[in-house]
Amino acid sequence: MAQLFIFGLGYSAGYIADTMRQSGWHVDATGSAGNVDFADPAAVAAALARASHVLSSVPPSAGSDPVLDAYGDKLPGKWLGYLSSTGVYGDTDGAWVDESAPTGTGRRSARAQADARWLDLGARVFRLPGIYGPSRSAFERIASGKAHRIAIPGQVFSRVHVADIASGVVAAMTGDAPAGAYNLSDDLPCSQNAVIEHACRLMGVEPPPLQSLEEADLSPMARGFYLENRRVANGRAKRVLGWKLQFPTYREGLAAIQAEVQAAISRSGAP
Predict the structure, then answer these.
(1) Where are the alpha helices (DSSP H) in 97-161?
(2) How far apart are CA 268 and CA 256, in angstroms?
(3) Binning pLDDT at 50, 70 and 90, where does residue 269 land?
(4) What's the whole-model pTM score?
(5) Would the keyword NAD turn up in this protein's UniProt record (predicted)?
(6) Can you give the residue ranges of every domain in the chain?
(7) Per residue in 235-251, is it b (16+ CB within 10 Å) or e — as a string?
(8) Quick one: pLDDT at residue 47?
(9) Which CATH superfamily groups domain 78-268?
């Protein structure tokens, strides 16, 4: 039986783990939902010894990569994957970026350094834009009153449904993809306002008021998100991995999430 070890069983990695288990793989993982304690070197070493494939979704901490710092010497000879961020490209003033674009010029300097370290080890590095999916979408932000429409003309972002992240990583894992970077993003970079407005239409509610960045009073992390403007190209993942998007734009992704919620309500018999 093929075996996968995941460092950090979070939202995206959880989808990947479920997909691999459904394909007959054994999966061990650290994290709150995992079965191995990251702080137990013996347990991690034993799980890594059994694993043929290793995937990390652990972000950098204080400018270093916790996984590579603690267990990097146990990774040679394994298939390696790393969930990175398209934030490594920095602000491009709305221009398209692919995997050949320079990294390390934006606010995600620690992430760019970790990204480079994994590439140096021969990993498949998956650069992810804004992630959404069931329980983590514009619908929840609107319902909680945390959705914003920010007046920044020309501002665009890329995003990707969590199920498409899983299919891209699994394609690389099972298809013997060459080492290197892969952008996993959808086909339609657009403003966050467009996504919020479309979700409001689906919900039958009025969109939040249009505000300036200052009026929105965002957290430093959210504010930094709006200070970058880029379109992320996904052609390499499609060509090399044979990756096919289930949700090529936010429209299909939001429709599927809404349908899933409505189906769950119907099954529960709730009014």
Answers:
(1) 109-120, 138-144
(2) 18
(3) low
(4) 0.96
(5) yes
(6) 78-268
(7) ebbbebbebebebebbb
(8) 98
(9) NAD(P)-binding Rossmann-like Domain (3.40.50.720)
